[in-house]
Design brief:
By secondary structure, the chain is of the alpha+beta class. It contains six helices and five strands. A hairpin with a 4-residue loop joins strand 1 and strand 2. It is globular and about 50 Å long. It binds zinc ion. The site of zinc ion (ZN) has 6 residues, from helix 5.
Length: 182
Amino acid sequence: MPQSLYLWTDIPRVPDALKSPRSDGKGQANNPSSSRVIVSGMTHFLLTDALQEALRQAARAARLNAYAPYSGFRVGAAVLDEQGRIHAGCNVENAAYPEGLCAEAGALSAMVLAGSTRARAVLVVGAGGAWITPCGGCRQKLREFCAPDTPILTANDEVMGPRYTLAQLLPESFGPDHLSTP
Ligand SMILES: [Zn+2]
């Protein structure tokens, strides 16, 4: 379902998205001070609770559209770009098993399609049980667009899980800077 890659490219920028009611009814989404921390080309970045929740909701919605007829293991991912936009993706399995795509790959594709190449935060949602972190291949894919301290968040359909940085998940990594000529 390739349209899933484009699902969130037209989503309102986060300050508008934050005006939506929170599903848990806590009402923090309308806190105007939270929306002001996100500016284009931001030099200061605070991953507020409201932003984390917006990422979780986007990833959860993507997870529900995952194509996983073989494993039944649905995953959703959401990426916050440098402009404050959220892009989501879901896993897409294939009868030729190795040709399946991870949710993170779909989210990154949507981000690039929307014109951004910098991710400020990433969140992955899986089903209950163990918390889902990006697989090894996706950690390298994220390395292309993330900084070492970019937050990588985990969650399930109900709550947030453990939080990491990309450097914690992929230490001593290889990236674009290694290919830059002196
Ligand atoms: Zn993966």
